[in-house]
């Protein structure tokens, strides 16, 4: 006469649930990392677009290009279109990027636009992008 096994399929089910739970936690971790990196990439794209926007503004007002100089983190000085462009751009940086700030350097016929922001991923580093263009 054969003995009946008791509790074996329950034990197998519990082990299967444990393995499935560990797998789902791994997937959740990957999803979280993906969201963090996507947000970081989004901010970098925003910074690049805003730097390009300022380069376009300076090129469009070539005659007053020297008035666009701005220290990183500074505020607009002077009057007229360059000051208006700087004010709008600095406000846009502050609104779109975490701790966003920018600067503009004009040397000879070369314009350099720098955008800085705080990377709110795991490291909290200060990120920077710089675009350089000829007038």
UniProtKB/TrEMBL annotation:
Q: Pfam families, per this entry?
A: N_methyl (PF07963)
Q: Which residues form a coiled coil?
A: none
- Reading the lineage from the top rank, the first entry is Bacteria
Cite the NCBIfam families for this sequence: IV_pilin_GFxxxE, type_IV_pilV
Q: What is this protein called?
A: Type IV pilus modification protein PilV
Origin species, per record, is: Vreelandella neptunia
- Encoding gene per record: pilV
């Amino acid at each position: 006469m054969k003995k009946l096994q008791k509790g074996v399929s329950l034990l197998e089910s519990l082990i299967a649930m444990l393995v499935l739970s560990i797998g789902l936690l791994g997937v959740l971790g990957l999803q979280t990392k993906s969201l963090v990196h996507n947000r970081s990439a989004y901010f970098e794209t925003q910074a690049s677009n805003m730097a390009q926007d300022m380069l376009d503004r300076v090129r469009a007002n070539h005659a007053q290009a020297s008035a666009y100089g701005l220290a990183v983190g500074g505020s607009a000085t002077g009057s007229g279109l360059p000051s208006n462009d700087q004010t709008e751009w600095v406000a846009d940086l502050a609104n779109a990027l975490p701790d966003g700030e920018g600067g503009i350097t004009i040397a000879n016929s070369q314009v350099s636009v720098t955008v800085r922001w705080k990377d709110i991923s795991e490291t909290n580093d200060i990120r920077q992008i710089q675009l350089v263009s000829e007038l």
